[in-house]
């Protein structure tokens, strides 16, 4: 999907990767990251977000949870990481990277909550009352008020396989009422995923049904007297989509593929970010006119 773009916009990364592989310095089945380009991409996204007053939590899932890159982004001025599960959180904690949002795709298991809360987690994303009660219990033990984001789900929202979750919109008011007895929880906003997707027909990124569910959820929260700090609308966050967030009611983006210039839109047209990553392997053997390479490399939605 990105080979032609990579050849045209970052041929140096290809050349250096091939040279290092030929010398035996890079193994097959390796992701190679152009840090100069990634830094430039990250700086452009950060500068634009500051111009538009949008918070950014960077995503390292697409980059192998790499703590060195995460540390560089914090040094650059990024607030911290969004981590999709507790294992990624542990990698970030080991590198002293701030945790801004934990649990968007995988809620934190009960007995791992204390570690993350002792370390300091700005927001937990939750989508069950049981998990919220567990967080409240730990927060009470250590004497803090823990802020949370409610992941919501509308009737026509989009989910990737294995990621189906969220408080259904029809049940949201009752969920909020159930939270009132939890003395050490503060609901700070709402979120969903994916909130933006590339539309093949219009050839541009557009808000999804999930995005509008978040907006409706924040209105319900406000009607319940809750101060909404975060309108978290992740997916395909990059310089160009920050404008979409700003034009709507979003307050937070979470760049992942944007950092490496590999969102779906980057494959269609040249955006501000350049491609900063390639997957390197070598052919093991040929069989019946097919070549077999070492490793698998990409997960199925990695473009």
Structure characterization notes:
With 303 residues, this protein is an alpha/beta fold. It has a domain at 56-234: TIM Barrel. The protein is 38% helix and 21% strand. It is built from eleven helices and 16 strands. It has helices at 3-9, 11-22, 35-52, 67-76, 86-94, 113-119, 129-142, 172-179, 209-223, 239-247, 264-268, and strands at residues 30-33, 55-56, 58-59, 81-83, 99-102, 121-126, 146-153, 167-168, 185-191, 196-199, 204-207, 230-232, 252-253, 277-280, 283-287, 290-293. Strands 3, 4, 5, 6, 7, 8, 9 and 12 form an eight-stranded parallel sheet that branches. It is globular, with a radius of gyration of 20 Å. The mean pLDDT is 95.
* CATH topology description of the domain at 56-234: TIM Barrel
| Helix and strand run | HHEHEEHEHEHEHEEHEEEHEHEHEEE
How large, in whole angstroms, is the Cα Rg? 20 Å
What is the rounded distance between the termini? 6 Å
Number of helices: 11
Structural class: alpha/beta
Residue windows where pLDDT falls under 50 for at least 5 positions: none
Shape: globular
Question: Do you know the CATH architecture of the domain at 56-234?
Answer: Alpha-Beta Barrel
Query: Into which percent range does the helicity of residues fall?
Result: 25-40%
Main beta sheet: strand number and arrangement?
8 strands, parallel
Q: For the residues shown, what is the average pLDDT?
A: 95
Assembly category: single chain
**CATH hierarchy class name of the domain at 56-234:** Alpha Beta
* CATH H-level superfamily title of the domain at 56-234: Alanine racemase
Strand content: 15-25%
According to DSSP, the number of beta strands is 16
């Amino acid at each position: 999907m990105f080979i032609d773009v990579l050849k045209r916009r970052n041929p140096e990364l290809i050349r250096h990767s091939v040279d290092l592989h030929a010398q035996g310095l890079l193994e097959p089945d390796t992701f190679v990251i152009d840090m100069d380009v990634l830094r430039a991409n990250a700086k452009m996204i950060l500068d634009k977000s500051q111009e538009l007053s949008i918070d950014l939590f960077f995503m390292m899932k697409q980059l192998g949870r790499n703590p060195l890159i995460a540390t560089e982004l914090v040094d650059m001025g990024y607030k911290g990481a969004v981590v999709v599960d507790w294992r990624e959180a542990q990698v970030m904690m080991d590198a002293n990277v701030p945790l801004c949002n934990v649990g968007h795709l995988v809620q934190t298991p009960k007995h791992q909550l204390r570690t993350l809360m002792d370390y300091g987690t700005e927001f937990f994303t939750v989508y069950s009352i049981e998990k919220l009660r567990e967080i409240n219990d730990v927060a009470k033990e250590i004497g803090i008020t823990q802020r949370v984001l409610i992941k919501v789900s509308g009737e026509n929202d989009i989910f990737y396989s294995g990621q189906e979750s969220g408080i259904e919109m029809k049940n949201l008011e009752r969920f909020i009422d159930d939270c009132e007895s939890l003395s050490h929880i503060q609901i700070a906003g709402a979120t969903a995923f994916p909130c933006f997707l590339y539309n093949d027909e219009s050839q541009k990124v557009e808000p999804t049904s999930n995005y509008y569910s978040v907006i409706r959820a924040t209105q319900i929260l406000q009607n319940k007297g809750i101060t909404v700090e975060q309108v978290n609308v992740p997916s395909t966050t990059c310089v160009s989509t920050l404008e979409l967030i700003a034009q709507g009611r979003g307050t937070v983006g979470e760049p992942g593929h944007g950092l490496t210039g590999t969102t779906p839109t980057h494959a269609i047209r040249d955006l501000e970010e350049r491609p900063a990553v390639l997957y390197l392997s070598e052919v093991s053997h040929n069989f019946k006119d097919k070549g077999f390479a070492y490793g698998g490399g990409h997960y199925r939605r990695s473009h």
